[in-house]
Amino acid sequence: MPKDNPGFNTLAIHAGAQPDPTTGARTTPIYQTTSFVFNDADHAAALFGLQQFGNIYTRIMNPTQAVLEERVAALEGGTAALAVASGHAAQLLVFHTIMQPGDNFIAARKLYGGSINQFGHAFKSFGWQVHWADPADPANFESQIDERTRGIFIESLANPGGTFVDIAAIAEVARRHGIPLIVDNTMASPYLIRPLEHGADIVVHSLTKFMGGHGNSMGGIIVDGGTFDWSKSGNYPMLSEPRPEYAGMILHATFGNFAFAIACRVLGLRDFGPSISPFNAFLLLTGIETLPLRMQRHCDNALAVARWLKGNPQVAWVNYAGLEDDPNHALQQRYSPNGAGSVFTFGVKGGYEAGKTLVEGLQLFSHLANIGDTRSLVIHPASTTHRQLTEDQQVLAGAGPDVVRLSIGIEDAADIIADLEQSLGRL
Ligand SMILES: *Cc1c(COP(=O)(O)O)cnc(C)c1O
After folding, report:
1. Does 104 contact ligand 1 (Cβ within 6 A)?
2. Which atom of ligand 1 is nearest to the CA of 207?
3. Number of C-beta neighbours around residue 217 at 10 A
């Protein structure tokens, strides 16, 4: 890249990639191989002992995956990244690296439904507890911190309601207590928000959504902010104590400001195994090249649709932070001035039944459980993604019985609005 400090659009296309040194291929190749030949026995030993970086086996790393990692680390402003099979795998590896049985973390109550399940149920079998906090007030996190708390987890832009969170204020709470702030940046993407610039320590993504952007491949990533001191408290033994499987190596002492990403790879990914396929890494990389263009169009279309819905007499309410009179508008302007994202909720007059009828009458929109596709998507969270939750939990998560969630695509805004108009007209 020509200059020292390339802009976001340039990084989205070039970061981490160069023409293939052996063939000249300009696009990053799909290195569809399980394993890599060693130069000699010493080389093999150095790779296994972490004395030298290099490819051994695709469960642990792969050259296509490595370009994806460098690209996302550059876009987020982190020191290193680890790409894995899905967003949920990324979350599992993050917590595996910071938690011991009996430890806890504080998570925002407004989260992707799958994360609420993962934290509240699956993590219990590791002996990890979650405490929930309403992210509207940072004090709600602080009041629950105890001597076994090892982290705070929030979404920068919360699913499904499209609510912004005061990242800097929550980061301040985490800093005061010497624990890392982990931010799920899936809904915003680094085009809208770079959480590390607001004091977060670790960023995770479901690359499945806006980053890949085309609804064709699963992926997740962990970005190491490089700023957290893993050795200070003694509470993060995976990073601060000698590792028996690496001849007593202390990962934080050895790898410094990218030790967290290394630990997630050489302990979590190595032993649990949720690696990303080289083909998915390739598709996600291709998607990321147009992230800035797509994200802006997603946001512009979503604002046009939200304004139109707001003026429709059959619509009870619209919850979109991009609207000037939305209670979240000031936070949106502060954290995400380029736009308010493309996922938001609204309520149809007539509640649960009207919401279901509206969803069934849409033709351009696809009725499915995903967000961040080029196509416009719709779902009724209470009967699908948030179905496992109690009604109280649904309401607290912004997914009550009357809520319809849209993920606005990058088609023509006029066509998206026309589809909503014809379906609302049938009610
Ligand atoms: C989809 C999603 C996840 C989980 O990611 P997968 O790739 O489906 O495992 C986590 N967080 C948010 C905000 C999501 O939208």
Report:
1. no
2. 7
3. 18
